[in-house]
Design goal:
Aspartate Aminotransferase, domain 1, alpha+beta, globular, seven-stranded antiparallel sheet
Length: 142
């Protein structure tokens, strides 16, 4: 079986954050880094060239496919901030209703800028997502 495309790297999170060109995106990414560190208690690690991950888990599907993935994290993309905070197992509509302007992917959340959302709701989503993930797979610090 093939490996996941997104793997942890030894790249510097701080250098990545400092290299974000757009000033608002860079500032938002710095705030998100503080939020994720606060909620998880973990130091981040780069996953691939653009994802900042906090914690990790090992999975094995019924098909036999297995691998490692970040437990939670975000990526400051050019078009959006992408937050990987909902593992996709549970409906977090009760928290999302408090969030503000966002779009949903299968297991990620897209926001344009932090000014559009309630950061307390983001904190609750990170915690709820991690708690939900931990009911399925062992989650550890990265």
């Amino acid at each position: 079986m093939s490996e996941n495309k997104t793997q942890p790297t030894t790249a510097s999170v701080e250098a990545f954050l400092a290299g974000i060109e757009h000033p608002t995106r860079r500032a938002d990414a710095a705030v998100l880094d503080r939020i994720f560190r606060e909620v998880t208690g973990w130091r981040p690690k780069m996953w691939g060239p653009t994802i900042i991950g906090y914690g990790q888990y090992h999975y094995t599907y019924d098909s036999g496919r297995e691998g490692d993935s970040l437990a939670t994290g975000f990526s400051p993309r050019k078009a959006n901030l992408v937050l990987y905070i909902m593992p996709g197992y549970t409906d977090f509509g009760h928290i999302l209703s408090d969030l503000g302007k966002h779009r949903l992917g299968k297991s990620c959340l897209y926001i344009n800028k932090l000014a559009d959302v309630d950061t307390d709701a983001i904190k609750r989503l990170i915690r709820a997502g991690l708690d939900d993930l931990a009911t399925r797979w062992p989650v550890t610090a990265s």
